Amino acid sequence: MLCWVSSRRPSWNAGAVRDDVREYVVEHLHDDAAVLVADETGDVKKGTDTAGIRRQYTGTAGRIEISRVAVCLVYADAREHTAVDRELYVPRSWTGDLDCCRAPGLGEDTVFATKPELARTTIERFTVAGAMGAHA
User: Fold this and answer.
1) DSSP string covering 4-40, please?
2) Cα–Cα nearest to 122, from 88, 86, 91, 83
3) Which of 14, 38, 68, 74 is the most buried (most CB within 10 A)?
4) CB-based burial label for 27 (10 Å; 0-12, 13-18, 19+)
């Protein structure tokens, strides 16, 4: 979902898109044998202005690089799979510095969470919405 702001630049509402995708998956792809798969993925970056960026291991490069990492949730069944959620991994070095979090727009309420905690958050968000019912 893109929202236009006064500067005439599009503003992405990632939460609304996530919710729309989840609704589509539940309505059109629902399979009682489906599973949720949580995994991290890294994006190699240049510069220092990207939220969550730091020197860290990323499987994308197979080594320590300047990158950011996200935990992704995928809905998978025997026929297909699709990404249904994500949470940015924000290193403790970022969450301990409010100015660091504010600069890329993370906000003062950003707290450190481990990757397994982020995976749990995405799974709970998906199941609370009634998407997996008792099969989670």
Assistant:
1) E-TTS-EEE-HHHHHHHHHHHIIIII--TT-EEEEEE
2) 86
3) 68
4) exposed
In Å, what is the CA distance from 17 to each residue of 13, 44, 116, 136? 6, 24, 23, 22
CA distance linking residue 63 with residue 75, whole number of Å: 28
Closest CA to 25 of 14, 40, 36, 15: 36
Domain boundaries, the chain: 2-135
Question: Dihedral sign, CA of 71, 36, 83, 59?
Answer: positive
What are the tens digits of pLDDT across the range 94-130? 888 777 777 677 777 888 999 999 999 999 999 987 6
Whether residue 78 has pLDDT greater than 60: yes
Tokens of 124: 């709970």
Looking at residue 116, the DSSP 8-state letter turns out to be H
Higher pLDDT among residues 2 and 62, named by residue = 62
